[in-house]
Amino acid sequence: MPKILIVEDEKAISGVLESILSDELKDYEFVIAEDGLEGYKLIEKDDFALVISDIKMPKLNGTELLKQALQLKPEITFVMMSGHADIDTAIDSLKNGAYDFISKPIDINRLLTSVKNALDKEKLLAENQTLQTENKSLKKKVHKRFTMIGESPALKKIQDMIEKVAESDARVLITGPNGAGKELVAHALHSQSNRSKGPMIEVNCAAIPSELIESELFGHVKGSFTGAIKDKQGKFELANNGTIFLDEIGDMSLIAQAKVLRVLQESKVSPVGSDKSVRVDVRVLAATNKNMKEEIAASRFREDLYHRLSVIEIYVPPLDERKEDIRILIEHFAKVISEEHGNAMVSFSDEAIKDLENFSWTGNIRELRNVVERLIILGSNPVSAEDVANFVRK
């Protein structure tokens, strides 16, 4: 089982972190270190999928731990934690090689997002390597994992649009609310395209600090800044001959937007610290939950970049606009979740499904899946209307 190391000198905080994260990340084992020196000794002896470290600690502070650990194991991923007064120190940590930092007091949602993105980053690199050697088998896996479930007119309209534009290299902007399935559309476009044998690289633009966006997207050369201990390929270069998916593009800073626009215009990238350009052949898909015309009017998004990205625009409606798909989605999630838990198939009564169909799903498909999992764990079999009333709040 992969391990996550939490380095925190306050036992109350480390205990809360372990409790929250272990509920969300059941496939990981958690290890606690009470100071930086103990954390370093654990890193020497063992491999960790992720290290979550405070900055101010006795014996060895988080910044020094980060530097020494990366010298020992350059591939290790760090998420740093810092008090509000330590933002400058946290920025230095990012420049020294940390993936992200979280301000204290800790926002739980921000923490979960950061940790999951950090773990996804490691998985993505591994999947990209596998993709290049086991193309056919991985392609089948992508189809299964990212199947679009439903029979509503709204979903069929999206599927028809995907079929029409997938084989072209046209850039596509996917819009719609969070949790509605924009990622599924992006993967469907890639898997049905002529680039399906190439990599599909995902970038969560909202999760990358503005100070690191250029390095993440375009790469850097060794020594280009503090913490650049080896050459690193950027996401655009990793996506060469394939597809790059810029998720939450509306949250990208204006400085980063200008750099992405240049790449789209010139089809080449310049790694940080290098005077050489690397030509890339990449199809760009982007997604946002924002109203882009409002963002442009408010000078938060470049109009020229918007027009470059939205050659084709696909709107993914909220679940409340395709409620005829709810029954099919519930049955699908019930099967998948039952298999994941290693349990017998749990069914839902007609009354329970009708009650769920009458809910307002502000969190869309993501929220529905979470509710189905909750009802499978806490409810009866079949799940009843009474279970819905007891365990789901309207």
Automatic annotation (TrEMBL):
Keyword Nucleotide-binding assigned: yes
SUPFAM superfamilies according to UniProt: CheY-like (SSF52172), P-loop containing nucleoside triphosphate hydrolases (SSF52540)
- InterPro entries assigned to the protein according to its UniProt record, in alphabetical order: AAA+_ATPase (IPR003593), AAA_lid_NorR (IPR058031), CheY-like_superfamily (IPR011006), P-loop_NTPase (IPR027417), Sig_transdc_resp-reg_receiver (IPR001789), Sigma_54_int (IPR002078), Sigma_54_int_dom_ATP-bd_2 (IPR025943)
Q: Which Pfam families match?
A: AAA_lid_14, Response_reg, Sigma54_activat
* Keywords assigned by UniProt, alphabetized: ATP-binding, DNA-binding, Nucleotide-binding, Phosphoprotein
Q: Gene3D superfamilies, per this entry? A: 1.10.8.60, 3.40.50.2300, P-loop containing nucleotide triphosphate hydrolases (3.40.50.300)
Q: Which organism is it from?
A: Frigoriflavimonas asaccharolytica
Q: Name one GO biological process term.
A: regulation of DNA-templated transcription
- UniProt domain Sigma-54 factor interaction: residue ranges: 148-377
The name on file for this protein is DNA-binding NtrC family response regulator
Gene Ontology molecular-function annotations: ATP binding; DNA binding
Q: Does the keyword DNA-binding belong to this entry?
A: yes
CDD domains cross-referenced by the UniProt entry: AAA
Instruction: Report domain Response regulatory positions.
Output: 3-119
The chain residues annotated with the modification 4-aspartylphosphate are: 54
Classification from the root reads:
Bacteria, Pseudomonadati, Bacteroidota, Flavobacteriia, Flavobacteriales
